[in-house]
Amino acid sequence: MALLVEKTTSGREYKVKDMSQADFGRLEIELAEVEMPGLMASRTEFGPSQPFKGAKITGSLHMTIQTAVLIETLTALGAEVRWCSCNIFSTQDHAAAAIARDSAAVFAWKGETLQEYWWCTERALDWGPGGGPDLIVDDGGDATLLIHEGVKAEEEFAKNGTIPDPTSTDNVEFQLVLTIIKESLKTDPLRYTKMKERLVGVSEETTTGVKRLYQMQANGTLLFPAINVNDSVTKSKFDNLYGCRHSLPDGLMRATDVMIAGKVALVAGYGDVGKGCAAAMKQAGARVIVTEIDPICALQATMEGLQVLPLEDVVSEVDIFVTTTGNKDIIMVDHMRKMKNNAIVCNIGHFDNEIDMHGLETFPGVKRITIKPQTDRWVFPDTNSGIILLAEGRLMNLGCATGHPSFVMSCSFTNQVIAQLELWNERSSGNYEKKVYVLPKHLDEKVAALHLGKLGAKLTKLTKDQADYISVPVEGPYKPAHYSHEHSHIRRNLLSNQTDSYYAVIFDAGSSGSRVHVFRFSQNLDLLPIGEYGLEVFDKVKPGLSSYENDPKAAAKSLQPLLIKAESVVPINLHTDTPVEVGATAGLRMLKGNRAERIMQSVRNMLKNESIFEYKDEWVSILSGTQEGSYFWVSLNYLLRTLRKSYQNTVATIDLGGGSVQMAFALSKENSEKAPINLDGEKYVLQKSLMGANYYLYVHSYLNYGLLASRAEILKVSRNSTSPCILKGTYGYYTYGGVAYKVSPSPNGSSLRKCKAIVWKTLKLNAPCKYHTCSFNGVWNGGGLDAIKNIYISSFFFDMASEVNIVDPKASSGKAKPIQYLNAAKIACKLKAEEVKYVFPNVDSKDLPYLCMDMIYQFSLLVDGFGLNPHREITLVHDINYNNNRVEAAWPLGCAIDVVSSSSSRTHISSS
């Protein structure tokens, strides 16, 4: 890239648009200082002691006038600083010039390309031979992301020589990240590892970045301590609320000169940012509609006099659209085509993925007309009407205006200074682990107090008697620790009258991820609601335990966020009576040696030491396939309310997991007595007494025949050569169970006929059958499924079917026929790798190369393996409507029924 770092006369590096604007920038910085009392007070309080002396701080945060005051506060306290912007449009060039000349190394200018943006981020992290940074001030998490991805790549390179492949992703921005890391490996294969080892921590400014941090904490991949500044009350309730209330209309009017009064404005999301935006639109005279997923926020919006409706209901009636959710795919190109001519579309969330920019830019025949910088009209060819899009879907208040005012940013940035001081001062104490922390409330109150005088406000003081009466210190803090609706993880669901109910916490440690299920039962084993969550509390993390085969402690640690979630919803007084069980499935079954047991023992130690739930060592185990299959059958039939009925009225289940597939159905007693013994010594038939009825349950688990495992087995047949099951244009490796399999298409691309032949070999359909009838691989089939009235198939069967439109992905279940998998395969197998995503846009990008293979495998498994008629109607199920609640159909519910009944000394269930 032909960008060159420049240097000031003092030798400080920089790259800005126009250094001649430095004097103009300095004048505005001086104006801003008057409006930022918190930062100026920090200089007065801490400046003389120089607490940051020796600290190297990298910032990735909008390079604005207000940020300039933050940077010079950090340098006034003794820090060296290197800075870049966190958005390609948000830099104020005169501010960047002033700071580059006077205070810190700056790499930022308005209108960067994405390639230039990531070059700037890399420069801000590059402290030269002396090393650094020690601390990061991040906004959106991009600097943190680059280090984490760099460390991951360096570890892979050291382990097996793997170099990142930028073409492995369709995400253009992530391609640039991988390119930077790839080039870095050539010059210093430990560059990011050395950064990680030196880093004291990061303080994160915004919601999106905080979400990234919590995800990394949950996955056990966070490399250094982090302080969540965003959820400090003086940030989220001020910057997000009052800042957006000020800057949204400012940006709209600068970009479009629109008269807001009388217009219909839609605000997507009613969190703190959404509240500020909705208030601004309402105060300007707009008629405001809010879209919201959270019933609490929706009720707040309604009680503020706003309409709450789905986007789809009003898309053609709205004049101004504002996205504020921090999520993705909020306004899609199909929405835009239905909008009024010249409807204004803008985003005030951090990234550009709330608005479907890719769909818009690639829409056939769409025309972009640039009215002025960051204001574009996009015209659709079929309607000859268009929309006005601001800031290319990025932060419009910074792309089209100057962002939040100085005063409110003083609150946020004072929190940043406090967070950086806390991390730096405690760098050797060991008090901060690799977790995400929130500043305590007394510091929030201190920040607020620093800003009151500027507004002429004076506090009333409590007397000692008054303070004692409400149980707070005279000097504060006055708010409870849980103040802020964001901190749902510390809420306690204190339900009353629950002594007649039972809870169970079940961990499903699968091959693709770990999940926690919390259930509550009545005395009669009816599912009961758990507060606001409905009949089940569910959460998940990735990857699965088997991904930590060389680090058992990290495996156990990956479950901690799920344990915290479970503890937050079970009433405290019932913790010691609530059983917790961990069932690991196919992923751990396939680990070699004692690795699986070492992971299980670490999980036992974690539960024993960190939880007061009722616990027994044997409740943490690797489930046999038979256990998993029987639990799933119990779960599904329980939800369908067929357990008290005769065996003919129960349903058969086929559950396709990642590593294995289980089939289960009830037999007559007569047929059960004819059952042979499995070659592994396990019984094919279990006898169960469930809710007053006896059942003889045929169960078998086929290890290595789950969807993810089947890919490896199918690729094995190709013996590291080309495969007719792989789409043309796909190259690379598929890793499963710690083994990498070459992925390379046949010269002519994928072939339905040839791939089907390989799948048949994989299923071992011709294996000798020692019984009257077999399914595949010589396994007794229990007499087959012909006599079963209803067959339910689930997990990957449902997931893949929903992605290729065999069933509605939004539905809880759907009717289908096995032949539909083959029909999907016929289409997929004719496509090239670059074509398949357009034909099957709902399929996850990581699964697209294997779509031909997966569809053939699922069809053959059902028809050739389990003997189903290809035209027989079956039910694909994800969850079941039980008492007007959707409950996931999965084995943990069956396990919960079992463990609750046994731990509470009741006899509704037994098995032999």
Automatic annotation (TrEMBL):
It catalyses: S-adenosyl-L-homocysteine + H2O = L-homocysteine + adenosine. It comes from Solanum verrucosum. Its cofactor is NAD(+). It comes from the Eukaryota. GO terms for biological process: one-carbon metabolic process; S-adenosylmethionine cycle. The active site is at E628 (proton acceptor). GO terms for cellular component: cytosol. Pathway: Amino-acid biosynthesis; L-homocysteine biosynthesis; L-homocysteine from S-adenosyl-L-homocysteine: step 1/1. The keyword Plastid does not apply. Residues 240-403 form the S-adenosyl-L-homocysteine hydrolase NAD binding domain. GO terms for molecular function: adenosylhomocysteinase activity; ATP binding. SUPFAM superfamilies: Formate/glycerate dehydrogenase catalytic domain-like, NAD(P)-binding Rossmann-fold domains. Adenosylhomocysteine is a competitive inhibitor of S-adenosyl-L-methionine-dependent methyl transferase reactions; therefore adenosylhomocysteinase may play a key role in the control of methylations via regulation of the intracellular concentration of adenosylhomocysteine. Belongs to the GDA1/CD39 NTPase family. ATP binds at G658, G659, S660, V661, Q662. Binds 1 NAD(+) per subunit. Its EC number is 3.13.2.1. This is Adenosylhomocysteinase. Pfam families: AdoHcyase, AdoHcyase_NAD, GDA1_CD39. Keywords: ATP-binding, Hydrolase, NAD, Nucleotide-binding, One-carbon metabolism.
